[in-house]
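The records we work with from here on pair a chain with its fold. These numbers are not coordinates but entries in a learned vocabulary of local backbone shapes. To see the layout at work, look at the sequence and tokens printed below.
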Amino acid sequence: MPEAYIIDAVRAPIGRKKGSLAHVHPADLAAFPIAELIRRTGVDANLVDDVVWGCNDTIGGQAGDIGRTAWLVAGLPEHVPGVTIDRQCGSSQQSVHFAAQGVMSGTQDIVVAGGSQAMNRIPISSAMTVGPQFGFNDGPFRGSKGWDARYGDEEVDQIRSAEMIADKWNISREAMEEFSLASHLRAQAAWDNGWFDNEVAAFEGLERDETIRPASTLEGMASLKPVREGGKITAGVASQNCDGAAALLIAGERAVKEYGLKPRARIHHLSVRAANPVWMLTGPIPATQHALKKAGMTVDDIDLFECNEAFASIPMAWMQELGVPHEKVNVQGGGIALGHPIGATGARIMTTLLNALERTGGRYGLQTMCEGGGQANVTIIERL
């Protein structure tokens, strides 16, 4: 089977809630890393076969197929199409999968994959709550006879899931706060050491991620009120709402040879699995087990891991179940420090993983993330 290669990857700095990117139109946010990717690689934009873009809550400025709109806003050729993908939090990781599958099939040669989310302008779950505006008191998990017949009236809520996972895997609030503090300190250290310099391009006057809180303390986190009464999950152990965008150039063997492209990594494995949608956030565990089995690999074969920090309990349960040491996971911080701009996070994580492998000299990197509906994508890349 033909190979799929990552030629380059770039992202915008992440803007915090009510931060430096809050004023930016979603299409302009999405267009930025696409334009920067074409500029950095020097690839003739006329050769791009498609733009596969991840984005959730595609209403307002994110509606109308933002993958297509972003390409046009970037000032690039009109004949290149675009499509927008919604696999919840894994949308842009799935975009990379679809792009890789396109070039591996031989039907495409060069594809831009990535994602964006303007969470300041369009808050999380906006698309799920528009029903009442049109006189319908429903949503994805209520009002459906089929859903009720299968799952009853059990509450489907990510905070509840994070709490359930913390309880099932015996993860204390204190342990989650220690994990969260490590995320901030790792992200700050990465910036201080210049480890993000190659992956981040300044945008709208913002040069660095503004979500990182290096002054956080365990004492400060301990004072935060739980989101749910009597629970363990607080804002301190959760990812942040923010604005972000990232893009990767994926190419097949034919394009690499014909146009003299220099790949930075090879897509070694890609897959997606799902688990119980009420538990919702446990998907990375069976998905990673499935991916390693399919790839004929073990945890020990992987040099670095990225498991999205939607909530601290998610990667902590995943590490516990898979036997992955924390020193190999999210080594430059994760969503708790860097934020979780939903549609962009998969591409952001892959961009960070690629650069971290190059920095450390590692060969294989694995990324996974929890996604709505109990799903989880897994990608294994090989640094070249």
In short: The first helix runs from residue 26 to 41. The beta strands are 4-11, 50-54, 82-85, 110-118, 243-252, 265-274, 304-307, 364-371, 375-383. The radius of gyration is 20 Å. Residues 4-125+241-259 form a domain with the Peroxisomal Thiolase; Chain A, domain 1 fold (CATH 3.40.47.10).
